[in-house]
Amino acid sequence: MLAFIQSSPLLLGTCLILLNLLLWQLISAQHRAWRIGARLVIFLLFSWVLLAAGMSPLQPPPWADDVSRNLMATVLAIAWWLFAARTVTVVFGLLLVARGSHGGRLLQDVLGALIFLAAVVAAAGYVLQLPVKGLLATSGVMAIVIGLALQSTLADVFSGIVLNTTRPYQIGDAISIDGTEGKVLDIDWRATRLLTSSGSLAVIPNSLAAKAKLLNHSRPADVHGVSISVVVPAKVRPKRVFDALEKALQGTSAVLPAPKPRVTVKASTLESVEYEASGFIADMNAKTDARNQLFDLAHRHLEASGVMWNVNLALPPRSRQRELLDEVRVFRALSGEELDALSQRMTAVEYLADQVILGVGEQSDYLLVIASGVVSASIRDGDKLLEAGRMGPGEVLGVEGLIDEENSFAEFRTLTGCVLYRIDKEQVRSCLEQRGEVQTAFSKLLRFRRQSRESLLLQKPAIIKKGGFLSWLHK
Residue 450: which residues within 8 A CB-CB, separation 6 or more? Predict the structure, then answer.
C-alpha cells in the first residue's frame, strides 16, 4: 500500500479531491456539519498521502533531478495549501452559523479571501521558493494605489464588516436608516437592501448605514412601540383629552399592560395642542392594525367626552343620545325622525370600574349602548373566563332575547368608569317589526358574536414536545 502511494501520489490526490467535490454535492446543505466533517476527513487523508509519499507542503519537492516527479509533487503541495484554505474557510463558516450571525456570509467571504491570500503567499514561499518579501512589498504599493482609487467602495466594505460584527440589525428586521424605513432583505459587500412599505427596493451604502441614525423596530423581539398623535383645539381642557386617550389605549387588548401606556403633550400653539398616546404591542406585524384601531378609538372616546371637530353652527344642537345613535351600526337603517324618537326614550346609567354589567346566562330587559368608557367581554371556558374583546362608545350589549330567547353567553365588565344608555327592548322590537333591515343587522351581530366565541374556544395551546435524553429513552 505504501509503495502504491509513493508511486501514484498524483492519482490518489486527484481521486481524493474529486471525492471531496462529489460528497459536497451529494450531502444536503441542511446537513452542513456532515458536509464539513467529510471534507475534514478527506483533507486529513490527502495530507497523509503527501507525507507517505515523502512530500511536505512546508518544503520544496526533494526530487530536483526527476522533472516529472518534481512537477507532480509541486502540484500536490500547492493543491494542499488551497485545500487547507478551503477547509479552514468552511469551518469558520460553520462556527459563524452556530453563533447565529446574520452576516455570516459577508464575514465568511472576507475571512475566506484573507485565508486564500495567505495560502497563495505560503505556497509561493514554501513550495515554489519565490522571494515573498519582494512580492509583499510590491503588493503593498499596489494595495495603496488601488485603495486610493476605490476609497468609497472600500469604506462600504469595511462598514459592512463592522455592521455584521456589531449586528445592529439582522435580515428580516424592520429598521429605519435616516428616515428610510423598510425590512432588511440582504447585506452584501457594498450595501444594505431594504423593502419599503410601498414595495420599493431601497439600496443604502454600508458606509452611510454605519454612520446614520438607525432605529431597529424589531428589537426587542417581543415588545414594539406604537403611538398616535391627535391635534385638539387649545380651548379644550387637557384633562378631558388625557382621560379620553387613556380609555382609547385601554380599549384594545393589543396594547400590552406593561410597559405602561401613556399620554403626553407633544406640542402646543395658541390655536391647538398636539397629544401623543403611546403603548407597546407584542407582534410587529400587527403595528399598522393597532395604530388604525387606536385612531378610531381615540376619535370615539374624544367625541364621547365632548371634544368635537368641525361643528356646524348653522345646525341646531343635538343631544348626546342622538349623536350616539348615529354611531350605532345596527340602527343605520332608521331615518332621522325615527332616531330622534328613539333617542328621547334613552336613559343614562353610570357604572364604576370593574363592575359587572351583564353576567353569563343573564338576560337584560334593556338594550345597552356604551356612551363612554371601556367594557370587556369575556366568555366562560370551564371554570375560567377568557377575554373575547373590548368595547367602546357606540357599541351595544344585551342584544340576546331580542330575536330569540337565548341568554347572554358572555360576561360584560367595565374596565373604566362607564356611562351607558338604556333602551327598553319593547321599543327596539317595534323597530324590528317596522324595519326588516334593523332585524337583519341584529341577526348578523348575534351570528358574528357566536362565531367569535366558538373560534376562541376552539383555539388550543401548542403542545410542547419533550426533548433531550429522556425523550430519546421514551422512543
Answer: 409
Q: Which of 78-87, 89-98, 443-452 has the lowest mean pLDDT?
A: 89-98
User: Which uninterrupted H or E stretch holds 116?
Assistant: helix 104-122
Residue 56, number of CB atoms within 10 A of its CB:
16
Please work out, in degrees rounded to the nearest 5, the angle formed at the alpha carbon of residue 105 by the alpha carbons of 104 and 106: 95
C-alpha of 236 from chain center: 38
pLDDT tens readout for residues 192-223: 889 988 888 998 888 888 888 888 888 777 78
Cis peptide before 259 (omega within 30 of 0): yes
Q: What b/e readout covers 428-464, taking b as 16+ CB neighbours within 10 angstroms?
A: beebbeebeebbebbbebbeebeeebeeeeeeeeeee
Beta strand residue intervals within 301-417, DSSP E: 347-351, 356-358, 366-372, 375-381, 384-391, 396-397, 410-414
pTM, 2 dp = 0.60
Cα 405 from chain centroid? 46
Beta bridge partners of 468: none
The answer to whether 228 and 240 are in contact (CB under 8 A) is: no
pLDDT tens for residues 84-115?
A: 888 888 777 776 655 444 445 566 666 777 78
Q: Which of 134, 47, 52 is nearest to 87 (CA)?
A: 47
Whole-number Å distance between alpha carbons of 130 and 140: 17
180: Cβ contacts below 8 Å, ≥ 6 apart: 194, 196, 202, 204
* Measured distance CA(58)–CA(127) in Å, rounded: 7
Provide the total of helices (H) and of strands (E) in the chain, helices listed first: 15, 16
b (16+ CB within 10 A) / e for 348-362: eeebeeeeebbeeee
Whether a cis peptide bond, with omega within 30° of 0, leads into 220 is yes
